[in-house]
Specification:
This protein is of the alpha/beta class and 622 residues long. The protein has 22 helices and 23 strands. The strands form 5 sheets. Strands 16-15-17-13-18-19-12-20-21-22 form a 10-stranded mixed beta sheet, with helices on both faces. A 6-stranded antiparallel barrel has the order 1-2-7-6-5-9. Helix 4 packs across helix 5.
Length: 622
């Protein structure tokens, strides 16, 4: 379909040109819409036939006579002067191609299409060519990220997801209307289903199918029901909107059903129980925590303290570092003692790991508190500051004063009072009978598994500790071995944990993941209301950027400079289920829709299906 002609009224460039729409009886013969894809074909010596594809980013209408005086409507409508309305569309070029022997190749010269060249609507089959998706599909590297308004799938390049060319995903938008969590879980579902479908065709898809997904639940208990069907989905299946959602899933070849392999973790209700603190979900939830071995072995002690205070108070920072180093040395001595203990008591272990040997010794009677002088919990640590002479002497040598020691004790008591004792677990209490596997350990490293860690009921300082501890463990596990399967980490409210300024030890962990994580296939999916409040080094390392509905004032910040002026205006009006996605291989960010999740993302929004009904639905859908 011919829609118009490249106009010479405005200056055109290879990247942006303008189309005057053909008209009949003072009306466009075909009124293009925002996001429509058009094609222009022209010749340019010595390159021959050139094909440009572009997307409509703006549409304008104006009178075609005289200079603007302010009285155009009155003059035209009263017939005082001949006047016609004409329409122009602004086109942003998405792909430049050249025809050679009937085939399209990507080395077209970058020249503006000449005025007078006819412009056509691209056919549905050409949409993939216009955005470069055809090459991704051919190479089995296309991952669905939503659909265009005509229902055609839009794709991301897996190489910019898994770290081959780039990594990390950032999602920003207003709370409640940008659907950040829904879109993030949709991406996880797309990654899993697409990876499984194409794992035999492409090595990277094989990695994607075996990925681990760690999701932090930061609000309510909504994400503790990802394995349940959504009430909203069930209700939608009874009207036309449900059919539309199913079509979207079918177009992207994603199964509209809850997640299959999910493990849920929550903090303990109290320090003397393994009962998880879960108010809505009563089954399949496990308690988590870290004991002294974890805390001092992985260097987690400093995560307990206020990052801003650590940065401003050098004495406190030195005290924290001293305590961490002191107990790390004691831990090494405890391992040597445990080896002797196991030899003397015939403790059998199939592993040479120092930590496993130590835990095996503990389960066979080795007392880590009295024999190795390592604190069992936070109460024990506070007590040791006054009773452990070696610890007191070490701190006094480093700090040359008791005021900082008193300050640390006060802060440790404060940390305990806000819930640290729910997370700092007792070694003996939480080790199983063999000492080889800890009941409190978060078991996240399983192929294709989604692991949800609830931190919503914890105080902010304790939330930060949990996030930092999990990230440290993930990075260490991937640094120790090469060619590991990917780990995706989804965290909402990223600005709380990696703020623009400061951030302390936790901020350093996030910066490390942003800058080195892709080398180990550790991928961060961060979400926040305002990208301008997140650490700049983290934001700029995200190769895939997603913007949901956003306030105009925020959109003026430099973090959104990848959007065109028209797209910024559009972003302030996006509806639920709409996002703007940008990846490096795209010449322009694209607006896509994503379907209603079939899985539950609200704590009061799930329902159970009996087995027979479930089989009927799956047969109908798949």
């Amino acid at each position: 379909m011919t829609v118009g002609v490249v106009t010479g009224i405005n200056n055109s460039t290879p990247y942006r040109f303008f189309v005057r729409l053909y008209q009949s009886q003072n009306q466009p013969t075909h009124m293009v819409q925002i996001d429509d894809v058009v094609k222009v074909v022209f010749s340019y010596k010595p390159y021959g036939e050139i094909v440009y594809y572009g997307i409509v980013t703006e549409i304008n209408a104006k009178w075609d006579f005289g200079p603007n005086s302010g009285y155009e409507e009155e003059i035209a409508l009263k017939g005082l002067s001949p006047a016609f309305v004409f329409y122009t569309a602004t086109i942003t070029t998405t792909r430049m191609l050249r025809k050679e022997k009937g085939k399209l190749i990507s080395d077209a010269p970058q020249v503006p299409p000449p005025p007078g060249t006819e412009v056509f609507m691209a056919s549905e089959e050409e949409i993939d060519i216009a955005f470069g998706f055809d090459e991704l599909i051919k190479q089995r590297m296309a991952v669905p990220i939503g659909v265009f308004k005509n229902g055609r799938p839009a794709y991301a390049d897996i190489r910019y997801i898994l770290g081959e060319n780039g990594a990390h995903i950032n999602i920003s938008g207003q709370s409640g209307v940008a659907s950040k969590t829904s879109y993030a879980t949709f991406l996880v579902k797309s990654f899993l289903d697409t990876g499984r479908r194409l794992r035999e065709d492409n090595e990277l898809m094989g990695y994607l199918s075996r990925s681990r997904f760690v999701i932090f639940n930061v609000k309510g208990e909504g994400l503790l029901f990802l394995d349940k069907w959504s009430k909203d989905w069930r209700n939608s299946q009874q009207d036309e909107s449900g059919k539309e959602w199913v079509k979207m899933y079918e177009a992207m070849k994603i199964k509209p059903q809850p997640f299959e392999t999910v493990k849920f973790y929550a903090p303990r209700k109290s320090k003397k129980t393994l009962t998880p603190w879960s108010n809505k979900r009563y089954d399949g939830v496990f308690a988590y925590g870290w004991d002294s071995i974890d805390i001092f072995k992985m260097g987690l002690f400093e995560l307990m303290f206020d990052p801003e205070e650590l940065e401003s108070n050098q004495n406190l920072q030195l005290a924290v570092t001293t305590v961490q180093e002191f107990f790390y040395e004691r831990l090494e001595e405890a391992i040597r003692m445990a080896i002797k203990f196991c030899k003397a008591n015939n403790c059998i272990t199939s592993s040479n790991s120092d930590e496993v040997i130590l835990r095996t010794a503990i389960s066979n009677g080795f007392d880590i508190v009295t024999q190795a002088k390592i604190p069992e919990g936070i109460d024990n640590l506070i007590e040791m500051f006054s009773k452990d002479e070696e610890l007191s002497k070490k701190i006094e040598e480093e700090l040359r004063g008791k005021a900082t020691i008193s300050a640390m004790i006060r802060r440790l008591k404060s940390i305990k009072n806000i819930g640290m004792d729910l997370i700092w677990a007792e070694t003996n209490f939480l080790s199983d009978e063999l000492g080889l596997k800890d009941q409190h350990r978060i078991d996240w490293d399983k192929p294709g598994q989604v692991t949800v860690i609830d931190i919503s009921k914890l105080r902010p300082r304790i939330q930060s500790f949990v996030v930092g501890a999990v990230l440290v463990e993930i990075m260490r596990s991937r640094e120790e071995k090469t060619d590991q399967d990917p780990v995706f980490i989804f965290l909402d409210e990223l600005n709380k944990y990696a703020p623009r300024h400061g951030g302390g030890p936790l901020g350093n962990i996030f910066r490390d993941i942003a800058e080195r994580g892709r080398s180990f296939r550790v991928i961060l999916i961060g979400a926040e209301q305002t990208a301008s409040e997140v650490d700049y080094r983290i934001i700029t390392q995200s190769s895939t950027t997603v913007v949901g509905r956003q306030k105009g004032a925020e959109l003026e910040k430099p973090e959104y400079s990848h959007l065109t002026t028209e797209q910024k205006q559009r972003a302030s009006l996006l509806q639920q289920g709409e996002v703007i996605v940008d990846q490096p291989f795209m010449r322009i960010p694209i607006t896509v829709r994503f379907p209603l999740p079939a899985w539950c993302t609200r704590e009061d929004g799930f329902y159970e299906l009996d087995k027979e009904k479930l089989e009927q639905i799956e047969k109908k859908l798949f």
